[in-house]
Write a structure and sequence with these properties.
alpha/beta, five-stranded mixed sheet, 570 residues, seven-stranded mixed sheet, 20 strands
């Protein structure tokens, strides 16, 4: 500490957490705080007065320029601060791997410890701390520390869990639990998947320098460190205070050009350094009109729910009856079954192709049980309508089409592009464009005279899909069936269209800025639309006769969002 015993206070406000360190005049950490702020940054800043001794503080610094701290605070670049902290902890670092809530980065140094270059992740949150935070919440764990503890206790084989996307990971978690994998093995697989994303992104085709320092919030996860070392076949060092490196580095940078950090500021209160903000809500998108082009609403048929009795299936089956007149004693029918990752659907049509009944249930990771539950429901419908269905032909489609098709002896096993196109042509022969957004995938198809001329689907990101919408509805405490009505006629701010992990951060922020639930719901739909148009569709190729398919098409407000952007009827 300097002669007069003064200290430096460094405040790092990140996307999900706030960290505070108090350093003496030699750069040693005297006291620290690290907490998730959940968007309520002001409340956590105000805790500093109670947790830190401020009467000997001579300077307040920050590695994260932001709108919360006033100009009385000295700001530094975050990357420069991490480099300063690394050199303070190790005079000649070979490389620094920093993994935070929404970003990971590799900083490379030469043999003399001079910074050379950096590499970072893309706009996907796979491989970041927020990804693990979200999976811990899905597993009903107290947080990432418990997930780490469970992972380190694992002795079982690891299940395959998608780590490239938070939405896909959700489905794989369900599959793994249903297959009987232990919670420890699931947590261990998540930590390995995160480590593998980091390795594949940052360490491909390059020698690993020595020493390799691991810092950032995720560096406290020893299971991730273990998997990094296994995948790299290289020792990874976690320095002291590794999760506080940006804050420590900002203090070090201040000390480097202020060897005597000055006299203290008696009577200092942290409120003196918090910028007084007048929150003004800003909107990027106009209200969503329910019927922009005056098209009819989505028709609904008489329906009922059935819970399978003979088949053990956790989800109810919704039955829509399109034929209200009495059936003859026997009816010849054709059946189509769509076995998707999120839901399983079936349709009975008569021999003329007219719909008789539709069936919908969640797959729940059990495509066979979902299909059997629908078959049981068909028997119930037969009894209810006092008839017998004589099956003239059965076709399957969807991700489970081959498995279920082989088991039931389907007459045709068809890819989804073909079935979507045929349905669109049968319903509207003039269709030239199909927008299809399902539970975990999205497809874009161009047609001419009933024939597919071009088609593509989303890649490893599910940000613009039905599961993404469902995730956000759950966070906001809104039932899916109420989503559209709440979002209609609501203006919206702009939010991330990239990732469900980043969207969660934006939702926390907007809530704390005073936005209403309906405005955030509308924001989610605009994000889905923008993601689809940027990453799946070829917007310049969208024609004049657009058919919107998939379960998300039942959301009137999402239809309105597409109409608002494209300025043509859907």
């Amino acid at each position: 500490m300097t002669k007069n015993g003064t200290t430096i206070l460094s405040i790092d406000i990140g996307s999900v957490a706030i960290s505070v360190t108090q350093l003496d005049g030699m750069g040693a950490v005297l006291k620290s705080m690290y907490a998730y702020h959940h968007g309520d940054i002001r409340a956590h800043l105000e805790q500093i007065d109670r947790q830190f001794r401020l009467d000997n503080v001579a300077a307040i610094v920050s590695p994260s320029p932001n709108g919360w701290l006033s100009d009385m605070v000295r700001f530094f670049d975050s990357q420069t601060a991490i480099i300063a902290a690394a050199k303070y902890m190790n005079e000649s670092p070979g490389a620094v791997l920093t993994v935070g809530a929404g970003r990971f980065q590799l900083l490379n140094f030469d043999r003399a410890g001079i910074f050379r270059f950096s590499a970072t992740n893309t706009s996907c949150a796979a491989g970041t701390g927020s990804f693990l935070d979200q999976q811990a919440a899905r597993l009903n764990l107290s947080g990432p520390s418990q997930l780490c503890d469970l992972a380190n206790r694992n002795t079982d084989p690891l299940p395959e869990i998608a780590s490239r996307c938070s939405v896909f990971a959700k489905t794989d978690l369900i599959h793994a639990q249903q297959a009987g994998h232990s919670l420890e093995s699931i947590c261990d697989s998540l930590c390995r998947g995160l480590a593998k994303n980091i390795v594949d992104t940052l360490f491909e085709k390059q020698d690993i320098p020595e020493p390799l320092l691991f810092v950032g919030g995720v560096s406290r996860n020893s299971a991730v460190k273990r998997h990094l070392e296994e995948l790299l076949n290289h020792r990874v060092q976690v320095p002291a205070w590794s999760h506080l490196f940006p804050a420590i580095g900002a203090g070090i940078l201040h000390l480097e050009d202020h060897t005597e950090i000055g006299r203290n500021m008696p009577g200092l209160k942290i409120s003196d350094f918090i910028r007084h903000q007048t929150i003004e809500k800003k909107y990027h998108y106009p209200p969503l009109a329910g019927k922009l082009f005056g098209h009819p609403g989505i028709e609904t048929a008489p329906s009922f729910e059935f819970h399978a009795i003979w088949v053990k299936h956790p989800s109810a089956i919704q039955v829509d009856e399109y034929h209200e007149r009495a059936f003859p004693d026997e009816v010849g029918v054709y059946m189509g079954i769509d076995i998707g990752s999120t839901s399983t659907k079936a349709m009975l049509v008569d021999q003329g192709g007219k719909p008789l009944a539709g069936f919908y249930t969640y797959t729940c990771g059990q495509p066979l049980q979902a299909t059997r539950a629908i078959f049981e429901t068909i028997l119930v419908l037969q009894k209810k309508r006092s008839t017998t269905f004589r099956f003239c032909g059965v076709g399957t489609t969807g991700s489970g089409r081959k498995f279920i098709g082989a088991l039931i002896g389907a007459d045709q096993i068809l890819d989804e592009i073909t079935t979507h196109a045929r349905a669109a042509y049968e319903l509207h022969p003039e269709t030239d464009t199909i927008i299809e957004i399902g539970g975990q995938d999205a497809k874009f198809t161009i047609m001419r005279n009933g024939h597919v001329t071009f088609s593509q689907m989303n890649s490893v990101c599910a940000a613009g899909t039905g599961s993404f919408i469902e995730e956000q509805a759950q966070k906001l405490g809104v039932r899916l069936q109420d989503f559209a009505a709440l979002a209609e006629n609501a203006s919206a701010p702009m939010a991330s269209d990239r990732c469900t992990v980043f969207m969660e951060r934006d939702i926390n922020y907007y809530f704390n800025q005073g936005y209403e639930t309906k405005e955030i719901l509308a924001c989610v739909l605009h994000s889905v639309r923008e993601n689809y148009l940027k990453k799946v569709a070829v917007e310049s190729s969208i024609g004049q006769h657009v058919c919107f398919q998939g379960a998300t098409a039942k959301n009137r407000a999402l239809v309105a969002a597409f109409e608002q952007k494209l300025q043509k009827p859907i």
